[in-house]
Amino acid sequence: MEFGLTEEQTMLQQSIDRFLQTNCPLDRVRELTEDGAVHDTETWQGLTDLGVTGLIAPEQYGGLGMSLLDAMLVQEMLGRHVTPVAFTATSVLAALAISRAGTEEQKASWLPGIADGSLQIAVALSEQSGARDNAGLVFEDGTLSGHVLFALGAPEAQVILVNGPDHSLFAVQADAPGVERQALRSIDDTQVIAEFSFSETPATQLQADQALLDQLVDAGRVMLAADTLGAAQHMIEKAVDYAKDRKQFNRVIGSFQAVKHMCAEMAAELEPCRSLVWYSAHAFDDIPDESRLLACHAKAHLAEVGRFVARTATEVHGGMGFTDLMGLHYWFKRIGFNRQILGSPERAREDAARIQGWI
User: Fold this and answer.
1) Which of 47, 202, 275, 298 has its CB 3.0 to 4.6 Å from that of 280, i.e. a possible disulfide?
2) Same domain, yes or no, for 309 and 220?
3) Mean pLDDT of 237-262
């Protein structure tokens, strides 16, 4: 079987790459994240103008009705440029959840806002991807109480999607009574996470079940794998460029066999990952019987390869790799964040083993 991107998909990715090169260079990322994690509203507006925010939303609600593969290609470029925008939470996970589990009224209320970029939705799936003893929700008489951790989404999100007991999914207005938001600081200031607490907060229940929540986690894992793919590819390119320029003993270090091997090994490890991520995103919409297993493999494998590339690219830079001048730490931390959120590689492998009936 021969699998590749269409001309339109290639053009989509190239246009996003050019836009981010111009509008979100590293100096801007430095400035934006100087005081902590942030969602870049200016870049978000530019992505909205390009139609990116409505990729997943159905056409009847103002979106483009495209596939997860198309959204994955965008996320790869966002990772390549360590862009601080909450694309996965709102434009992918929330759009999928509302499209597949919302009532007609809920779809009409939220999907147009997702499509035109005016609505930000935070998504908390920690109960599905890694519940903790000190967190959880109780739903009684139409209200939620408790708290959830590691919600993905912009600080200014107007709606919060949270999964609760018995494989349920709820939508909560961020300004509803009893809602408290606490920003969580992670290693990566280009991606925002938060803890939400609820105290008898009015909530609207979506028509979700275990299968839908699994699909949301799968989609999130594929998007994180794509983000890591883009970040790791950029780190390799920076390492190769540095090796061509840096001189020792009157020779560029790229001429040394040891450095050549480091760069070649990074490329050899990462290149097969591209087809894995492509195929896992393709399977999400077109091969549902395989999609869960492939999402687990993509998340786990990219986490390991991404960490290897991040470390090796930093080593190629020598002592300079640890300085802010080179900026490698932005990609290094982004890869580290993607490794843990929505399940570590160990958790993803455990899920894969369970899917195949091994445990």
Assistant:
1) 298
2) yes
3) 93
Span 11-60, pLDDT tens digits:
999 999 999 999 999 999 999 999 889 999 999 999 999 999 999 999 99
Same domain, 88 and 157: no
In a domain, 236, yes or no: yes
Q: Tokens 């994240």 belong to which residue?
A: 33
pLDDT for 234 beyond 80: yes
Highest mean pLDDT among 132-141, 155-164, 232-241: 232-241
**Closest alpha carbon to 191 in 21, 23, 342:** 342
Q: Does one domain contain both 86 and 199?
A: no
Q: Which two tokens stand for residue 38?
A: 């942030």
Q: What is the pTM assigned to this prediction?
A: 0.96
Report CA-CA distances (Å) from 119 to 135, 145, 192, 262, 283.
27, 24, 16, 44, 28
Domain housing 56: 7-115
